[in-house]
Each structure stands twice: as C-alpha cells, then as structure tokens.
Amino acid sequence: MMQNPNRQIYSGPVFDMARQQFERVANHLQIPEMERDRLLYPKRAIAVSCPIHRDDGRTEVFQGYRVQHHLTLGPTKGGTRFSPSVDVGEIAALAIWMSWKCALAGLPYGGAKGGITVDPYALSPRELEALSRRYMQEMIPFVGPHTDVMAPDMGTNEQVMAWFMDTYSMYQGQTINEIVTGKPVSAGGTLGRREATGRGVAYLVARALDHLGISARAATAIVQGFGNVGSVTAYSLAERGVRIIGASDHTGAYYDPNGFDVGELQRHVAKQGQLAGFSTESLIEQSELLVQKCDILVPAAIERVITGGNVSELKCRILAEGANGPTTPEADVILNERGDKIFVLPDILCNAGGVIVSYFEWVQDLQRLFWEEAEVFDRLYQILERSFQQTIARAKRDRISHRMAATAIGVSVVQSAKRTRGLFP
Questions:
Q1: How far apart (Å, rounded) are the C-alpha atoms in residues 243 and 147?
Q2: Which of 77, 101, 113, 183 is catalytic?
Q3: In sequence order, what DSSP letters do the residues of 327-380 get, joined into one string?
Q4: Is the separation of the CB atoms in 349 and 197 below 8 Å?
Q5: What is the pLDDT of residues 83-141, one digit of tens each?
Q6: Domains in the chain, start-ordered, CATH in brackets?
Q7: Active-site annotation holds for 101
Q8: Maximum distance among all alpha carbons in the chain?
Q9: Alpha-carbon distance 219 to 326, whole Å?
Q10: Per-state percent for the chain, helix, strand, coil, to nearest 5
C-alpha cells in the first residue's frame, strides 16, 4: 500500500499525540477507515518566509506557518504563536485540537493555528512589529473574516493582533476589525477576552469541585505556567477561596503549603517580566512542582508535561488542562487505570474560554454592536456549562474517560457535517 504523503508532511511528537488521540476516538466511534484521513488531516498548510530588517542593518528571514484544519462548519479559527520551537507538525496538531474544541462548544468554526519560528523576546519592539506585519502580509491571500480568523497565542498579544488587523485593513482599503480577535478594546476587541481562558478554567474547576463534593475554601491548587492563562486562573481560583500553594513559569517554580498571595505574584511578574527572583525560601525544582500533593493541578504552559514517567506520581484530585496537549497518550492510559481516578478536565473543554470569547468578539465586530462585560461572561459560562454537562454525561453513558468523551463529541459533530455536505466535486 502506498504511504499517505500527509504522514511525511506532518510529523513530530505533538502531531503524533493528536493522531493517536484521534485514532482512539475513531475506533471508539467505529468511523470507517475511508473517512478517517479526511477527518484528521488538514485542508491546507501554508509555509512562508518572513524577511525583516534587523536594527543592526542585517536582513534576516524567519519561517512562518499557518494550518487550516477544516472549513466545513465555517471559517477556521486559531491562535498565532511566536516561539523557537514552532514547526508545521506542532501547528497542525494545535489546529486539529482547535477543531474538536470548537465543535464541542458548538461554535461555527473549524480549527486553525499559525506561528513563526522565533524567540520574540530576542526582538526589539520595532523588529517585532516588522515581523508581525510581514507575517500577516504573507497570509493575506489565505485568510479573511469568513475564511480564517487569527488570535493571539504563546509569544503574541493584543498589540500583535492590532498590527495584524491594521496590516490586513491597509491592503483592503477599509478597517476590517473582524480579521483577528484578541485585539485591544480600542481597536475593536471585546471586554473580557484577555481573562476569558483563565476564568473559564476556574469556572470548570469550580464545577468539578461541586461534582466531587469538595469545598473551594478547603481546596489547594498548583498552577504550572504563570502567563496570561495561568495567572488569571490562579487569581480567579483564589477569588473563590482556593489556596494557591504552587506556581511556576519557565524561569522558576515556587511551592509553599501555606499558600501564596496571588496579587504579589502578579505584581512581581508585571515588574520583572518573570517569576524568577520572587522568593528564595519557596524555590522548588520544576519537575517536582507537578507531583506535590494538591486538590487541583493546572498545567497551563506547554504540551507534553504529564508523561508516562511522572503521571503515576500525581497527587491531585482534579487535573485541569489550561494548556493544549499537556498530557501524553501514554499518560492518559495510566490515568484511566489509576484506582484513585483523577477527575480530568481535558484541554478541549477546560481551556475553551479563549476561543468562545474570541467568537463573541468576531460576532460583535461583524455586527458593530458591542456587549457589556457581564453579558460576555454570562454567555461564556452558559456555553461552558453545556459542554461540561455533555462531556460528563457522555463519559458516564459510554463508560469512557472525560477526554475520550469530549473528543468523541467534537469529532462526531465534524463527521456529521462532512457527511451532510458531501464531497465536492
């Protein structure tokens, strides 16, 4: 049998994770073999070269990517990350996960993801703007408000989104706010977007605590990754009475069973740009932080941090996946076999708050009618509650894991839409 050329284009450990997860769900759903490649492999992958003038006069070329998984339900939607580790396999996996995430939440989107292989912190502000604008310029033939809508991700922020929007608008001759989400409110963004993912994680953790009969005021939490998602999650959990006993970013990890003042952690990061230097007494090894005893563990940084090597050492009751793909398939098998049954909030459910409020931003931009913050969060929690209930009910009915249940719902929605629309031509 001839090898599928897609298997040569899309590779690497992160894509292998997405593929293994899909195969397990496809087997569970008994999806015919002839339909699987069309559901799994992306519709379109774009690679571009992004040359810019560096401040020292050199011209340097950076590689950029965008993967659009499917456009069956509507335009594709997904973030753009600037990171030294970006490659097309990782981007494709993130686009696939975004597809199942949007379908689970009932959003009219397919998944997408983009990125540039660069360390954004090694660029000056002028260089960062130049690279951001060049990337969007190269993407103009492939994106649009009804084709592919970008958003921020690791290494990008509201300002980068504003540059994206302005670049696209200049080429169209009019302001097109709805080409990206996650923009500043002054540039057509929505209230609540920056906090949406973290507040969504905290909402679902609260629902899990209720489900398990644990009081939030008696609960402890460790947050791995203290960027936008992790810091907002920590603050929102603390507001609910949860004691934050551990926190980390790529520069340092801290643990204190007596708990931290989350406001102090946030002020330190705002001033120093990182957690390093916050404390000497509570320093702990990064790998050790994940396996400390707590009620709630929130991996909110990068992929593949919970593996077959450390999953047996987890001492949490709730695993709330704020990051994309933090748990490997090997770790999933062990999680499912553990007698203590950790309550898993899988990533495509747990961190969906960001794309849900991005959807709200897109809708508001299209209508030129903006909502109050309270309405944004009321609508967000309604969707998260529905997705939570559907996932728990599916897991109970089919006697499967929460991850399998959530992914099965998302895959089934896309499969049904593809069958209904048929194959053109």
A1: 43
A2: 113
A3: B-HHHHHHHHH-TT--EEE-HHHHTTHHHHHHHHHHHHHHHT----HHHHHHHH
A4: no
A5: 998 999 999 999 999 999 999 999 999 999 999 999 999 999 999 999 999 999 999 99
A6: 42-177 (3.40.50.10860), 194-351 (3.40.50.720)
A7: no
A8: 66
A9: 22
A10: 50, 15, 30
